């Protein structure tokens, strides 16, 4: 008996009991659909996160002051005022062989006022290299220049959220004056929309001004202390060397003795990427576990039904053996039946999973990535489940004695 | 003329508890091609065991069984399956048709396991056989749509599919009314006249009367061999 004939017999046996065949498949259908849907959503989410990180800028080392250690009261991380604009300038000057540019940042939250409208936003004092370092595009006007930075010029560039709060929709913004706190600033440009970052923070709700201006005029700081600096490197290959050299330079400038801890912290974008990567990996592992469990349950369902089917069709098995079916024929027939059930379940599951992912993506407005490879893998795995769980019932059927089968009541 | 079936000192022993039960206790017998044989006997006389072994559904504990000149007493399950497929046809008391399957497909089944014919030839032969047993108009019916007598005819057509030299029938009229029984036995008689060897087990004298040769079994032994 050739494979095609066995295939026909199996298809026939499945179609003879449509309702039960469908119910048997449901375990596999649900398992595969869940895997496909969650995988599509997960891939979409991780792609979005990676895009997010790269929008932060490449080849970047971020430096924050660590907690303040003068006295016995410890402030939180980043609250120290140990880092100054001078540190930033020193890094740019002395480490120019690996450092492309340094952009210090001074952040204040301030009330923005224009005519009868006002809005509270984060005002970032940054350097003129900021657009390049953190991938900011300018939608209208221009970013401030080095001379403006040196002269503590009262100019600012606003994000689209701030623009929306302070101006009418089609109003010309460039050249207008707004008040930050008590000080008037001239708006010279509008930043292109970036959207929310990976942590849900609206990146467009921002005002950027020269850090010198923010520090001296808005903060009225004597020390020119800065909240952080973005150090942009020529190449990411130098990141470890750069971190070492920045550390030793800052320790030297801060006059730290050998036994003292650093009073600053360094992070690079690669570290953040690898954190995201490990989250994605964890998600994949969890997903695989869930998939394995649901397919295990589905497979046991198939095994159960196949065992019932063998008992129920014992006379049929006896008859087939009597008219010439070999044990191998019977084994193949029942394994094929199980594999057909599970692969049909797999196909329906893949379809249902894609539909579910698309529906969820539509409703939640999430990006969805459906990979052909994951659909194919799920399908092949469902076939394997059928083979694995179909073997035992099929083996039992093939070992039956024809007389016992024919006599079975 | 060589014998089609030749058994010598055939024994079949079952162990039920500690007590060995001799279902067949040294039976020797030969059947020639074209014979129509009825095996009779009371329940427990060993006639069913005899038919199972002759039909290669079971193997004897000891003894020899030559079918068509070939020793079949000690063969693997797969080899026995091939022998049943090619040389033997079966008709059962309860018909043993596949549920929800059309008559023509029931009849085609033995050739599916042999793979001798093309699809078209197989279908043609199945339809021809159904006509032969008088069911030319019911080839697409499922067992539920057929009477007992008609179901048994389908089973006979199926048994003939691979042109076996021997047909085994186990109480073929046991589930049928008198009228259908007579029709089935007439069909057997016709087939016998066409040269097919038939070995039938029955406990009814009037059914056994259709056969040319009657064997009577008692306690696992052959006690009477009557030829007409």
Main traits of this protein?
heterodimer, A: 409 residues, alpha+beta, 6-stranded mixed beta barrel, B: 228 residues, alpha/beta, Rossmann fold, 6-stranded mixed β-sheet, 4-stranded antiparallel β-sheet, 10 strands
Descriptive report:
- The complex is a heterodimer of chains A (409) and B (228).
- Chain A has 409 residues and is α+β, with helices and mostly antiparallel strands.
- Chain A folds into 2 domains: 184 residues, no CATH class; 126 residues, no CATH class.
- Chain A has 13 helices and 10 strands.
- A 6-stranded mixed barrel of chain A has the order 2-3-8-5-7-6.
- The longest helix of chain A is centred in the C-terminal third of the chain and has 44 residues.
- By secondary structure, chain B is α/β, with parallel strands linked by helices.
- Chain B has a single domain, classed as 3-Layer(aba) Sandwich (Rossmann fold), CATH 3.40.50.
- The longest helix of chain B has 16 residues.
- Chain B is globular and about 50 Å long.
- At the A-B interface, helix 1, helix 10, helix 11 and helix 13 of A face helix 2 and helix 3 of B.
- CATH domain class name of chain B: Alpha Beta
The percent range for helix content of chain B is 25-40%
Measured distance between first and last alpha carbons of chain B: 20 Å
- Number of beta strands of chain A: 10
How much helicity do the residues of chain A have?
55-70%
Residue windows where pLDDT falls under 50 for at least 5 positions of chain B:
none
Mean pLDDT of chain A: 84
Low-confidence stretches of chain A: none
Question: Main β-sheet of chain A: number of strands, strand sense, barrel status?
Answer: 6 strands, mixed, barrel
Question: Helices and strands of chain B, in N-to-C order?
Answer: EEEHEEHEHHHEHEHEE
What is the count of structural domains of chain A? 2
CATH fold-level topology of chain B: Rossmann fold
The total of helices of chain A stands at 13
Using only C-alpha atoms, the radius of gyration of chain A works out to 33 Å
Strand fraction of chain B: 25-35%
């Amino acid at each position: 008996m050739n494979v095609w004939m066995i295939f026909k017999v199996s298809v026939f046996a499945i179609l003879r009991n449509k309702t039960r065949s469908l119910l048997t498949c449901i375990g596999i259908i649900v398992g595969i659909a869940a895997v496909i849907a969650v995988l599509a959503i997960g891939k979409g989410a991780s792609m979005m996160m990676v895009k997010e990180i790269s929008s932060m800028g490449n080849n970047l080392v971020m430096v924050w002051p660590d907690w303040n250690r003068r006295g016995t009261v410890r402030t939180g991380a980043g609250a120290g005022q140990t880092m100054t604009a001078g540190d930033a300038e020193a890094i740019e000057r002395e480490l120019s062989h690996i450092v492309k540019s340094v952009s210090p940042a001074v952040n204040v939250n301030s009330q923005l006022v224009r005519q009868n409208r006002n809005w509270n936003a984060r005002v970032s004092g940054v350097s003129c290299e900021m657009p390049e370092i953190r991938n900011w595009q300018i939608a209208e006007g221009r970013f401030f220049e080095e001379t403006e930075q040196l002269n503590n010029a009262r100019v600012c560039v606003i994000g689209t959220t701030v623009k929306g709060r302070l101006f009418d929709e089609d109003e010309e913004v460039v050249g207008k004056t707004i008040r930050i706190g008590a000080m008037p600033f001239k708006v010279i440009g509008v930043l292109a929309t970036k959207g929310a970052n990976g942590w849900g923070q609206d990146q467009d709700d921002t005002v950027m001004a020269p850090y010198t201006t923010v520090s001296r005029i808005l903060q009225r700081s004597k020390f020119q202390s800065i909240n952080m600096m973005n150090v942009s490197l020529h190449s990411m290959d130098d990141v470890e060397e750069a971190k070492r050299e920045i550390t030793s330079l800052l320790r030297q400038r801060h006059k730290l003795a050998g036994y003292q801890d650093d009073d600053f912290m360094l992070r690079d974008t690669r570290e953040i990427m690898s954190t995201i990567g490990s989250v994605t990996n964890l998600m994949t592992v969890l997903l695989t576990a869930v998939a394995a469990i649901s397919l295990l349950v589905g497979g046991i369902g198939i095994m159960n039904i196949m065992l019932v089917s063998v008992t129920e069709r014992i006379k049929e098995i006896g008859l087939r053996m009597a008219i010439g079916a070999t044990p191998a024929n019977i084994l193949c027939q029942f394994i094929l039946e199980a594999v057909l059930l599970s692969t049909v379940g797999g196909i329906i599951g893949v379809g249902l999973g894609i539909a579910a992912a698309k529906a969820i993506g539509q409703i939640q407005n999430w990006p969805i990535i459906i990979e052909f490879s994951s659909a194919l893998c799920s399908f092949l795995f469902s076939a394997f489940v059928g083979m694995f769980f179909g073997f035992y019932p099929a083996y039992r059927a093939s070992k039956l004695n024809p007389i016992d089968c024919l006599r079975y009541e | 003329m060589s014998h089609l079936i030749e058994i010598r000192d055939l024994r079949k022993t079952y162990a039920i508890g500690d007590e060995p039960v001799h279902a067949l206790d040294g039976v020797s017998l030969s059947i020639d091609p074209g014979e129509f044989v009825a095996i009779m006997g009371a329940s427990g006389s060993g006639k069913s065991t005899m038919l199972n072994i002759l039909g290669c559904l079971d193997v004897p504990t000891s003894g020899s069984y030559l079918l068509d000149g070939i020793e079949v007493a000690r063969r693997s399950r797969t080899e026995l399956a091939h022998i049943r497929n090619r040389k033997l046809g079966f008709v059962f008391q309860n018909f043993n048709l596949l549920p929800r399957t059309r008559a023509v497909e029931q009849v085609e089944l033995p050739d599916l396991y042999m793979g001798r014919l093309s699809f078209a030839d197989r279908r043609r032969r199945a339809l021809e056989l159904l006509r032969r047993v008088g069911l030319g108009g019911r080839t697409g019916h499922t067992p539920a749509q057929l009477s007992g007598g008609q179901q048994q005819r389908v089973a006979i057509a199926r048994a003939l599919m691979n042109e076996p030299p021997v047909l085994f029938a186990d109480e073929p009229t046991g589930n049928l009314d008198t009228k259908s029984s007579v029709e089935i036995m007439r069909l057997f008689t016709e087939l016998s006249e066409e040269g097919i060897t038939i070995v039938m087990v029955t406990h009814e004298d009037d059914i056994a009367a259709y056969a040319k040769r009657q064997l009577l079994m008692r306690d696992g032994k052959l006690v009477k061999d009557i030829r007409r």
